[in-house]
Design brief:
The complex is a heterotrimer of chains A (292), B (652) and C (421). Chain A has helices at 3-34, 41-57, 62-90, 95-115, 140-162, 164-174, 176-181, 186-212, 220-233, 240-259, 266-278; strands at 131-133, 136-138. Chain A has 292 residues and is an all-alpha fold. Chain B is an alpha/beta fold and 652 residues long. Chain B has 27 helices and twelve strands. Chain B has helices spanning 2-24, 28-53, 61-77, 83-105, 110-130, 132-135, 155-178, 180-190, 192-197, 202-228, 238-251, 256-273, 276-299, 305-324, 332-346, 350-362, 376-379, 429-436, 459-465, 482-489, 498-502, 507-523, 539-551, 569-584, 596-602, 620-625, 627-634, and strands spanning 141-142, 230-231, 389-400, 403-414, 418-422, 444-449, 452-453, 467-469, 557-561, 588-592, 605-610, 613-618. In chain B, the strands form three sheets. A six-stranded mixed β-sheet of chain B has the order 8-9-10-5-11-12, with helices on both faces. A four-stranded antiparallel β-sheet of chain B has the order 4-3-6-7, with helices on one face. A two-stranded antiparallel sheet of chain B has the order 1-2. In chain C, 43% of the residues lie in helices and 17% in strands. Chain C is built from 14 helices and 15 strands. A six-stranded mixed β-sheet of chain C has the order 2-3-1-4-5-6. In chain C, helix 2 (35-54) crosses helix 12 (309-329), helix 6 crosses helix 7 (178-193) and helix 12 crosses helix 13. Chain C starts with a helix and ends in an 18-residue tail after the last helix. Classes of the chains: A mainly alpha (292), B alpha/beta (652), C alpha/beta (421).
Chain lengths: 292, 652, 421
């Protein structure tokens, strides 16, 4: 493998990894407050993308569509929280796993019937011509994903640290019971986290769609990767997902080149099982001391 | 007797019914559905071991179906073996790979475990797809069903074979799951730490459960291969996995019947939904069931409003949808999800849980009869304690980063005594207990039991060495009954090897275990609650159950970690009495306690810790007056104030 | 549980029965990733059935019989396909089956139709194995027909197109499903058959759902591939086209008919221009029949473009062929219909062509006897600015002529031999 090829592979893989990271971040947000994740997150990405596409088709300008898409995503996140998560959390059961899968199934089927089973292109105001930087080809859409990932993660992390509501979020994440004693409503905070997670899904939908196209199955392959990234990085690792996401993306790209494209995913999967065996809470996760 | 008759009767009738259908109905489609039902029954029973009993979200089961199917297929096509060796190979592949996968996944729980199994599934699909030379890759593997003892198997014949396998699996699994193995699986789900601390190795049981479940997955795969006679790696992916998982939950976890009901639903629902009229009937009936159970649940206050209303709304949507939507086939997944939602929310124990409760009442099925308790002397024989130190802590240290939780502690505990361990919050009491019991590895120092070093850093080994403990934050096995909680920990009763257990020949020791466990429950005053699930016991009763369960280890040293925390006064008195009775059996007890009155009442010697160090030791009376102790508790030196101890108000 | 069981048993026995109808089952993936093809096929067929029923039905004896359809979604899953086949095969009064998109579903399900001798027209699954499984096994009589340009014809045309453009080095790219892998085998086979004029410099695979094709394309690029011969479905093909644009590769894509599906054309945008693929139907109202079909489809199903025009047109024509066979057999009995299909006396006007004697009696040595499509009905299509057009104008004229019924083409057994276009 020559250096330019290597560079191209690494860069393309890294951009794909950022897509994983963005979706993975949505998992982290809800896990922090409620120790639950939405297994229907991929469908949330998908319906948000479809919704945004519909707005575009109705003639809403791109930049005006983004906030609408975000609000829609957040609303869907809240719906999932209400229907699939809250009851399970109240009962301290793991029912959320199944209920969120079921929620995803429902969204999938509904989307199929409303928007059709076909994949659609997602127009952006950006040109689709590649840019050549130092002998490496990248597209503007890829750069948009990278910018978007850091922007949304940065904004949310800032929100968590700088605002009162954000601090409540952090408090519930750190210790739910203690936070409740301090008068912070854990239920509200969990709602907030699902709303945020839905908004992140919408951002992912809007940013990723130009690359993946919009269709009912657009996120089904991505979501498993994103889940891996979130867990391996550690479900409470913050920016760890970016590092792990990019690593997985690059690894996939390189193993596809070296081992043959059929084996693309294999090394990642093996490393993943090993990483988990060695560090169950994730590479960047906090190792909790077992208390009894 | 009536219970056994009813339950076994129901099983016999169901199986006889299933077995005789081909005699009356020759429709090959019905036969195909029944065959698939038997295969999925085996598959879901296997999945239920990990999902229901072990309580882990296992997303890798579908891989074992696939690997088993390919193993059987390759045995037949490449190596020319017959059906029986092929099925054995399929099962072995599932069993061995399942055990291997369990190894790295041992420490994982929840989402992490789910991911590890999911990755395994993805990996095995990739391998089946890429090893084209062996498996035929994406183009699939076609095979023909080999003859069965020289005769061509007819479709009913193959169906009977699958059904026979299901019956066999059913019987064997019923025996295992009702034995101490099954209880250990469940214990693992509710509290891995307590399982270890009770000397029941989580390691061995997790691997066993996983290998067992995966082996069944492999067996189902073998039958699957002979049923469809065409295999493709893409058949065994996440999509199918989700359906299987939903099948188990829909049917009802931790239940063989539940698995069978789940399999029935998984097999039949897609077909039922494609018929418009049937679908409307289904939706209507479902709506009525949800309205009835919802209203009932609300009136009896067994359901939260959301639990009662949401399923009604969901089924209502279904009924409405039936009139609005022309082509239900297009909406199949949405319909499926609405039905599932209703069941998961409205009938949390699954269809079978709901039905079995209903049937138990309808047929007045009596609960399992309990044997007479054994005599206390046979369970906990009185030991005459020799007059020597039994446990010695030598310069024990445990640091967490910069925090010195235990900092050079040396204590000697005499056999047969009740040794109190007190100190203000954060003084290191709990850490000491956690180091002794093997939860934490000490940073330095050692622990000697009868002069021999105690194993360090392993809950199981310490438990096996004869040290049992209770937990300050209750670590009961919530889904098990009080009796079963004690039976999990019971030592010296289970001797039968696994094959005997499988064949149901361990009945005697099971009876003995029940009798002994009952004795211990009686000792802690819980005999009447023997059949109550631990999570449904009162808080006080749960504290007593912790003690009873630790006693089942028949230990030399019993460590009680704040047993009276949060107890009401009458319960405290009762507990003092129980502890005294335990001491009378000659047991050494280490008591960590905040209640000063309990300490004064019970303890022979008290060690006082502060900042991870020993600051005083002696009889309760002497340490109460020790100025250093008073200072540690109140933060400043206090003059001794006559008879009233400053420690008294700390009984919180 | 038992109640459910019994109701199914009942269902198995009591099928919605109406006298005087011809019962046809339509199967295919109507949900999920392959749905654009399955649903288009179904809708095309439904359109034809509605037209026939609007005229009162098929004349059998002295009564007109309407066509009644049973739809079954196989979700592109082999197990579902096998179960559905068993269900349909167990219905006593089924006249025939039209459908199936995925070759794997054919391989797992069709044996149940064959066992009962139920007439099935495979449409639009193109994988060679769905028919060769019968010839390879040397089955004496087969009730399975195919109405789709099978991969044998298609791959021959693809290789031919590459050779005609004087390429010498090509990369073979395919998806990891049965469809892609068997397409790869067919193409490699055709390269050999057509004289090894092409050197395959890279063989690359991708999975369903892959979005980043950089690695595969870089390998092809660095090996010096002048054209990408591709076998796959839908969005992944678009990802390949877009990836090529990103890497500045201007080698053309040549591949199976799925490159004409809207999920490729729309999503590849201008990057798809110049892509070549064999077509049996092009969504261009070049004849009155085609015009009324396209408009009818757009209006009935409220779309601006057919998701998979090829599937829709094949579904439409398959129904007309079937109806002709019913009329000729004067019976709804599936065995008689099979015999009529093997020897259709009247030409059938379809939207793709006018079909003259498309099938003949099964010859175990030659599965072409049950294949409707010959090279003549298949043309090279090219993507241009979001639509598929005829790559060679001569094809268009020929098809117009054929559709007008001027041709008296009798199918020869000669399969796709190199006929210079």
């Amino acid at each position: 493998m020559t250096l330019p090829i290597f560079a191209q592979m690494a860069v393309s893989g890294a951009f794909m990894g950022l897509v994983y990271a963005l979706i993975a971040y949505g998992f982290q947000l809800t896990y922090a407050t409620s120790k639950s994740i939405n297994f229907g997150q991929g469908e949330l990405v998908m319906v948000s993308a479809f919704f945004s596409l519909t707005l575009l088709n109705l003639g809403v300008p791109y930049w005006a569509m983004i906030p609408c898409g975000l609000v829609f995503g957040a609303a869907m996140g809240l719906v999932i929280e209400r229907t699939a998560v809250r009851l399970a959390l109240e009962q301290k059961s793991e029912g959320w796993i199944l209920l969120s899968i079921i929620g995803g199934l429902f969204l999938f089927s509904t989307a199929e019937n409303i928007w059709g089973r076909d994949d659609h292109p997602f127009p952006t105001p950006m040109s689709t011509d590649p840019i050549h930087v130092l002998g490496v080809d990248v597209t503007r859409n890829e750069i948009a994903v990278a910018v978007g990932v850091f922007a949304i993660m940065g904004l949310i992390e800032l929100f968590k640290r700088r605002t009162l509501l954000g601090k409540a979020f952090e408090a519930v994440s750190a210790d739910r019971d203690a936070a409740e004693l301090m008068g912070i409503s854990a239920t509200r905070t969990v709602m907030l986290s699902y709303g945020l997670s839905g908004a992140v899904a919408a951002v992912a939908g809007i940013l990723v769609s130009p690359i993946t196209t919009v269709g009912p199955t657009m996120a089904s392959a991505l979501i498993l990767k994103a889940f891996s990234v979130a867990v391996v990085a550690g479900l409470d690792s913050g920016f760890g997902v970016v590092v792990i996401g990019m690593m997985l993306g690059i690894l996939e790209s390189l193993s596809s080149f070296q081992l043959g494209s059929g084996w693309r995913e294999a090394p990642g999967l093996v490393l993943l099982i090993l990483a988990l065996a060695l560090r169950p809470t994730g590479v960047f996760g906090k190792t909790a001391i077992r208390k009894v | 007797m009536k219970r056994l008759l009813l339950i076994h009767g129901a099983e016999l009738i169901a199986m006889a019914l299933l077995g005789s259908i081909p005699l009356f109905i020759s429709n090959p489609y019905v036969l195909a559905l029944l065959t698939l039902l038997a295969i999925y029954g085996i598959l879901l029973i296997g999945l239920d071991v990990t999902v229901g009993f072990l309580g882990q979200v296992n997303l890798g089961h579908v891989a074992f179906l696939g690997l088993g199917a390919y193993a059987a297929g390759l045995m037949v096509t490449r190596f020319g073996f017959g059906m029986i060796p092929a099925l054995l190979a399929a099962m072995a592949v599932g069993f061995i790979l399942g055990a291997l996968l369990a190894l790295p996944s041992l420490r994982l729980e929840g989402p992490q475990f789910a991911l590890a199994t999911l990755s395994f599934a993805a990996l095995s699909t990739t391998a089946l797809n890429e090893l084209e030379g062996l498996t035929g890759g994406a183009q699939g593997l076609s095979l023909t069903r080999p003859p069965w003892f020289g005769r061509e198997l007819t479709p009913p014949g193959f169906y009977w074979l699958c059904l026979a396998m299901l019956v066999l699996v059913w019987v064997l699994m019923r025996n295992v799951l009702a034995s101490h193995w099954g209880r250990a699986f469940e214990a693992l789900r509710d509290s891995p730490i307590a399982t270890d601390a009770m000397g029941v190795g989580t390691y061995r049981h997790k691997v066993a459960a996983f290998a067992l479940g995966s082996g069944l997955g492999g067996l189902a795969g073998g039958l699957y291969a002979f049923n469809f006679q065409y295999l493709q790696p893409q058949s065994f992916t996440y999509d199918l996995m989700v359906i299987l998982l939903l099948g188990v939950v829909l049917g009802g976890r931790k239940s063989l019947w539940g698995a069978l009901v789940g399999a029935t639903l998984v097999v039949l629902l897609p077909n039922l939904l494609s018929n418009h009229t049937l679908f409307r009937i289904f939706a209507g009936v479902g709506f009525l069931v949800m309205v009835v159970t919802g209203v009932q649940g609300l009136i009896r206050k067994r359901l939260r409003p959301f639990q009662a209303l949401a399923p009604i709304v969901a089924m209502g949507m279904l009924v409405l949808g039936g009139f609005v939507v022309e082509n239900t086939e297009n909406w199949r997944k949405a319909i499926f999800s609405l039905m599932l939602f209703s069941v998961v929310v409205g009938l949390p124990e699954g269809l079978m849980g709901f039905l079995s409760e209903f049937l138990t009442q309808a047929f007045k099925v009596p609960p399992v009869p309990l044997p007479e308790p054994a005599t206390l002397d046979s369970v906990l024989p009185v030991r005459i304690p020799e007059d020597s130190p039994i446990l010695v802590l030598e310069d024990l240290k445990r640091y967490f980063g910069g925090v010195k939780a235990v900092d050079g502690l040396s204590i000697t505990i005499r056999a047969g005594s009740i040794h109190g361990l007190i100190g203000p919050n954060g003084s290191g009491k709990s850490t000491v207990v956690n180091v002794i019991s093997g939860l934490y590895l000490p940073t330095a120092g050692r622990v000697l039991l009868r002069g021999k070093p105690l194993p360090l850093g392993s809950l199981v080994k310490v438990a096996k060495a004869g040290v049992a403990r209770t937990f300050q934050n209750l670590q009961l096995f919530g889904e098990l009954t009080a009796l079963e909680n004690v039976m999990v920990a019971l030592r010296g009763v289970y001797h039968s090897p696994l094959p005997l257990v499988l064949l149901g020949l361990a009945y005697k020791e099971e009876q003995k275990a029940r009798a002994e466990a009952l004795t211990l429950l009686e000792l802690v005053g819980l005999r009447e609650e023997a059949r109550t699930k631990a999570k449904d016991l009162t808080y006080g009763a749960q504290r007593f159950l912790e003690i009873g369960r630790a006693l089942a280890r028949k230990p030399e040293i019993l460590i009680l970690d704040e047993p009276a925390a949060g107890l009401a006064h009458p319960d405290v008195l009762k507990q003092i009495e129980v502890i005294q009775r335990i001491q009378q059996r000659g047991m050494t007890i280490i008591l960590i306690e905040h209640h000063m009155d309990v300490v004064s009442e019970l303890c022979d010697v008290v060690s006082v810790l502060d900042g991870g160090r020993l600051i005083a030791e002696g009889s309760p009376e002497t340490i109460k007056r020790d100025p250093k102790v008073v200072e540690a508790y109140l933060g400043q030196p206090q003059p001794p104030t006559g008879g009233i101890s400053p420690l008294e108000p700390l009984t919180a | 549980m038992k109640r459910i069981l019994f109701s199914t048993l009942l269902m198995g026995a009591v099928v919605l029965q109406a006298d005087g109808t011809v019962k046809i089952a339509l199967t295919g993936p109507f949900t999920g990733g392959s749905a654009p093809m399955g649903a288009s096929m179904r809708d095309g067929a439904t359109l034809a059935i509605a037209e026939i029923n609007a005229t009162g039905g098929i004349q059998v004896g002295n009564q007109k019989m309407k066509i009644q359809t049973i739809e079954r979604d196989d979700e592109a899953k082999n197990e579902r396909g096998a179960l559905i086949a068993q269900e349909l095969a167990a219905m006593g009064d089924l006249s025939g089956v039209i459908g199936t998109v995925n070759t794997g579903v054919c391989l797992s399900g069709d044996k149940h139709f064959q066992a009962k001798g139920i007439t099935k027209i495979i449409c639009p699954a193109a994988g060679s194995a769905s028919m060769t499984q019968w010839s390879k096994a040397g089955v004496k009589d087969v009730s399975i027909f195919r109405f789709a340009a099978h991969d044998g014809i298609q791959s021959a045309m693809v290789i031919e197109a590459a050779i005609n453009r004087n390429f010498t080095k090509v990369a073979v790219v395919f998806d990891s499903t049965n469809y892609g892998v068997s397409g790869r085998d067919d193409m490699l086979d055709q390269i050999r058959k057509q004289g090894n004029k092409l050197q395959v410099v890279a063989q690359e695979k991708f999975n369903i759902g892959d979005k980043d094709m950089t690695a595969q394309l870089l390998r092809a690029k660095s090996a010096g591939a002048q054209a990408i011969l591709i076998w796959g479905i839908g969005p992944e093909l678009a990802a390949v086209a877009n990836g090529m644009a990103k890497l500045g590769m201007n080698a053309p894509l040549i591949g199976g008919w799925t490159l004409s599906m809207s999920n490729f054309i729309d999503n590849a945008g201008k990057n798809g221009n110049g892509t070549l693929m064999p077509q049996t139907f092009i969504e261009e109202p070049f004849t009155a029949k085609a015009k009324s079909f396209i408009e009818g489809y757009h209006k009935t199903f409220k779309v601006e473009r057919i998701p998979s025009p090829v599937s829709a047109a094949q579904g439409y024509d398959a129904v007309y062929l079937f109806a002709a066979a019913v009329r000729q057999a004067q019976s709804t009995d599936t065995h008689k219909i099979k015999e009529a299909l093997e020897n259709l006396k009247e030409p059938v006007k379809g939207v793709i062509a006018t079909w003259v004697h498309p099938f003949s009696s099964w010859d175990p040595a030659d599965e072409q006897t049950h294949e409707a499509f010959r090279r003549e009905q298949t043309v090279m299509g090219m993507v241009k600015d979001g639509r598929v057009i005829f790559a060679n104008a001569a094809d268009k004229d020929r098809l117009i002529k054929a559709a007008l019924g001027a041709t008296a083409k009798a199918p020869t057994k000669a399969p796709a031999k190199s006929k210079k276009s």
